[in-house]
Amino acid sequence: MQSLRVGETTLHDVPAPGPRAGSVLVRTRCSVVSAGTERMLVDFGRAGWLGKAWQQPERLRAVAAKVRSDGPLATWEAIRAKLSMPIPLGYCNVGEVIEGGGSTAVRSGQRVVSNSPHAEVVLAPHRLAAVVPDGVADEAATFVPLAAIALEGIDLLYVKAGDRVVVVGLGLIGQLAVRTLRAMDCEVLGLDPVGERRAMAETHGAAVVPADVNPVDAAAAWSKGQGVAGVLITASSSSEEIVNHAARSCRYRGRVVLVGVVGLRLDRAAFYRNEVSFQVSCSYGQRDHTGPGSVQANFRRVLSWMESGQLPVEDLASSGISVG
Q: For an engineered disulfide with 285, which of 2, 46, 76, 295 has Cβ 3.0 to 4.6 Å away?
């Protein structure tokens, strides 16, 4: 559990959840610590009040509105109460089904992947879990939610085989985006200031350029002056140049999709010239149904690529720890 008020990360001994209709009860076998999202939460918790405000500037407007409506004391108490509630870390879990919760799609003993936290026993809604095929190892399957985040953003680009796509930011999600796009037979240009990340992306089929090369020039040269079909932004940065460079890199009616977190002061001219569209991706997919574009559908697509060998992930884990 992570305290967002004092920044302490603690291990809790709590009662295990019980069976519930509509949810699958799972005994954990493996989970992944996401170096980006989970580190961000830990860093946020450890920051002082000014640091928290700096990291979440959009929250300041909500705080100001509450001060005007409820007064400073009530606002302060609400903020303290919110930050005093520890939150469970983790959202990449693979385990063995204990109880299916009324689902005919899963049975006891099967392995499932879900967006559940780091815990010995978890309870996942049916629509947020998928059965892991026998040909996919536990360790590989734990990367499914992360790959589904990349896939949801890629789907919003509406690209097809042979299209040229730029991925900006080659952290964990960016690496998975590169591999997913290659599994879809797209051409990929990866951009990142870190040489090791560029080298890993290149190993898995992406073209890369040195960090000091202008990204718009790089995309133009790589696409032979045609512009790219789309740009997927998986970076975390306060820079407003990233999204505007992405727009300038696109061909006519290309698309820019944001999966990461960057500055969003859009330059109208950058988007106007080629009628480039911009969209923000919603995590792993739509959570309220089980059809195309849903979390479960995205999980299954990722698992099928893993099973066929088109989406390798074994080299993404930096280290492993056995527990219990």
A: 295
